[in-house]
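Sorry to interrupt, but I need a hand with the structure work. It will help me judge whether the discrete encoding reads sensibly. Write everything out right here, beneath this request:
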Amino acid sequence: MLFLTPVLVAVVCMLIVWIFKSADRSIKRKNGEPRARAEARPWVDEDLKDNTDLHQVEEDADEWQESEEHVEHITFSHIQYPEKEMVKRSQDFYQLLNKRRSVRFISDKQVPMEVIDNVIKTAGTAPSGAHTEPWTFVVVKDSDMKHKIREIIEEEEEINYIKRMGHRWVTDLKKLRTNWIKEYLDTAPVLILIFKQVYGFAANGKRKVHYYNEISVAISCGILLAALQNAGLVTVTTTPLNCGPRLRVLLSRPKNEKLLMLLPVGYPSKEATVPDLKRKPLDQIMVTV
């Protein structure tokens, strides 16, 4: 019996060690799960994340500018239309925007610059978090610069289609007949690159917080699309995956700006085609409570 005691102690010790190692491996696996999931989605673009960082504001308070506490308020001017006119205007506007399509075949015919000025001014009327207006619209007309943009995008897009996006995403795009070749980046007379400003600067050089910068700029982009349609121009919404940093450097944009969207703008080419897609009916997109 005395002989068995040391053996029994050794067995118990080995069992305890095994339990602790198993628990440690389990913890490591759990900690590694988010990382594994992140690696399974390599297409996520850091530039497309809304990084309004309120904690940083608190930590680096001396570097950030306090917002204005007083702004004068004025009487709101409003036009109220008769009900019949309201219905007609809303129906006309719907019919106009219902004709909007994503067009990848764009003519090289030049567009009046005054029109581009007006549609971007219209986009600039969008609401924004604390009225920070966190957007920059870069208009590119120079043919050499457009081609450099195309080279960067096609280089990254080929990698996206082959490696980053995955089989499911690439398969979902097949019906649209799109790939990494972006000829419209050369042929479109105007490229509009929309950057979100993740923070701004006050007159004294201190940083200003841009709340909800991505949502604000996305709303602005929607208004821009409507303005382009209203002006009789076409475009296709593109989000050049993993191209933001290189395009930012190419266009000499500051570090606080992140590329959100690129719009090639112009007239449709004579041979332009679009997929025969249908939009969801009202009862599938609206819920009334």
